[in-house]
Amino acid sequence: MTAKVGVVVFPGTNCEHDVVEAVDSVGGCGRLLWHKDTGLADVDAVILPGGFAHGDYLRTGAMARFSPIMGAVTRFARDGGPVVGICNGFQILTEARLLPGALYKNRGLKFLCQTTRLRVASTGSVLTRAVGIGDELNIPINHFEGNYVCSEATLSELRETGSIVLTYKRNPNGSTSDIAGISNKKGNVVGLMPHPERAAHPLLGSTDGALLLKGLVGGE
To answer: Of 121, 115, 110, 135, which Cα lies nearest the Cα of 193?
Structure first.
């Protein structure tokens, strides 16, 4: 059965159509959800895509967490539903407390738009279950506030529970412990700064992002 993936659109989101096309290309069925919706219909997974939700006022993701749809996303996640936040979506997930830590301004205070090499650190998440530990992926980043920070206690817990899912081979933004993506303890909620939808077709220079999206839509 084709997995239906809801892609949430906030005012300022700009990667929603890229995500839908990438999801469709790996066998899923992407559909757009508006941030004022109060339900998720009958989707099998949810993606919060990149962009500048609500103009990134206050802090990135700080206003988006109060959008009506986030109540439904939170319930879906707590019931075990797969939820992935990409870039701005990752920031929203931390603001909504669905993931620990926070995203700060990049080291050097520069916007970064470049391909990065990642290492798969865990296969226990809905996004990395189709790849292997130690696999290396080429996937672009496109952010100014992608520096992941957390307390020592949180970092220790992330390590103990296998919740660090992706790390940078060469840290571009100062992120704690080279973290590029994390999950919750169950592995059903994942946030990552790199954009897998921008590495899902040969014409984009890499198809490594498709491996992650296939895991999301294809199941175990």
So the answer is: 115
The predicted-structure confidence for 153-165, as pLDDT tens digits, reads as follows: 999 999 999 999 9
| Structure token pair of residue 35 | 């941030």
The model's pLDDT over 32-52, given as tens digits with 9 standing for 90+, comes to 999 999 999 899 999 999 999
Tokens of 124: 């226990």
Catalytic site positions:
87, 195, 197
Measured between alpha carbons, how far is 182 from 193 in angstroms, rounded to an integer?
10
CA–CA dist 56, 3 (Å, integer): 31
What CA–CA distance (Å, rounded) separates 169 from 39?
39
Contact residues for 51 (Cβ-Cβ < 8 A; gap 6+): 10, 12, 13, 14, 15, 16, 87, 88
Q: How far apart are CA 82 and CA 32, in angstroms?
A: 16
pTM, two decimals, is 0.96
Q: Are 190 and 165 in contact (CB under 8 A)?
A: yes
Domain boundaries of the chain, sorted by first residue: 4-218
Overall CATH class of domain 4-218: alpha beta
Structure tokens at 103: 């995203």
- By percentage, how much of the chain surpasses pLDDT 90? 90
Chain centre to alpha carbon of residue 1 = 24
Exposure of 156 by Cβ count < 10 A (0-12 exposed, 13-18 middle, 19+ buried)? exposed
Q: Mean pLDDT throughout 175-196?
A: 98
CB count within 10 Å of CB 142 equals 18
Q: Please name every residue paired with 139 in a beta bridge, in sequence order, or none if there are none.
A: 116
